[in-house]
Amino acid sequence: MKATLKYLAGIAGPSGYGSKTTAEQATRDFSNSSNSQLTAIITGATSGIGAETARVLAKRGVRIVLPARDLKKAQIVKEFIQKETPMAQIILLEIDLSSFASIQRFCAEFLSLQLPLHILVNNAGKFSQKLEFSEDKIEMTFATNYLGHFLLTELLLEKMVETAEVTGIQGRIVNVTSVVHNWVKRDQFRFSQLLNPKKYYNGTRAYAQSKLANILHAKELSRQLKARNANVTINAVHPGIVKTGIIRDHKGFITDSLYFMASKLLKSTSQGAASTCYVALSPQTEGMSGKYFADCNESHSSVLANDKIEAHKLWKGTRVLIHRRFLPHVN
């Protein structure tokens, strides 16, 4: 109850920010000159939280690489950002996060540009009411929200480690997750079933499972990065329940009546992007890794999300799937 009241009132936490903080407010003290050497890749940035994250980071001087399935939408976002920030550097590249082959092509194209990479925001989110499968024959929500971002991170990780070594600037990976990861029970989280739910598919459960996987990914990769003394961090961020397409367009996620009643409590897009921008740029999060953030403050994820054995098991199963079944030639 105390936490709920704090959220509703927008009371600031230890960081000095709270649930009402906007992305611009959370980054307003950051110098454009110090950020001008930074490059960030932000997935899902053609709308919603991702577009706002791109806008604010660009406003703070960060070069933005915007991967998109629909390049026309991406061009609209680019023009919108550059109208406000004419000097913003924005690069558009094509990607379909549900396709391993597309992710490979994107990474090859990005790496060919020989740019540094300081920030990777795994933001894109898919909610599918009906059971759908990707071209790789994997359940679409899990393929997009988790597996796609896992592979993207894997293929770009050495570039981030190298950039951090050369520049001395800590690399930062941000996995955008959701509080609904708390809804997942241990007996519902079996890798084979996540890949191919044979019966009783539920869109909300599939979404929650993918968001739990995002946190476990951050936890396990953080441990691996620390073990190799890499100057790269990875954290998970819950943006809050935001007025985005995932909420509006899917009645299976929240009913019309509940949406109407809760509309006054939902965050704006700028408030929803605040935690992502804060974790990506703030000096306060320097060196913090394997954490879970909400409302621009470190928070608590579920017991299952903190299970080291579960995190390692998921990482190992995912890597085997990707490297043996689909990408045997990737080291």
TrEMBL record:
Coiled coil: none
GO molecular function terms noted in the UniProt entry: oxidoreductase activity
Keyword vocabulary terms for this entry: Oxidoreductase
Keyword Oxidoreductase: yes
Family matches, as SUPFAM superfamilies: NAD(P)-binding Rossmann-fold domains
Stored InterPro entries: NAD(P)-bd_dom_sf (IPR036291), SDR_fam (IPR002347)
Family membership noted in the UniProt record: Belongs to the short-chain dehydrogenases/reductases (SDR) family.
Name the UniProt record assigns to this protein: Short-chain dehydrogenase
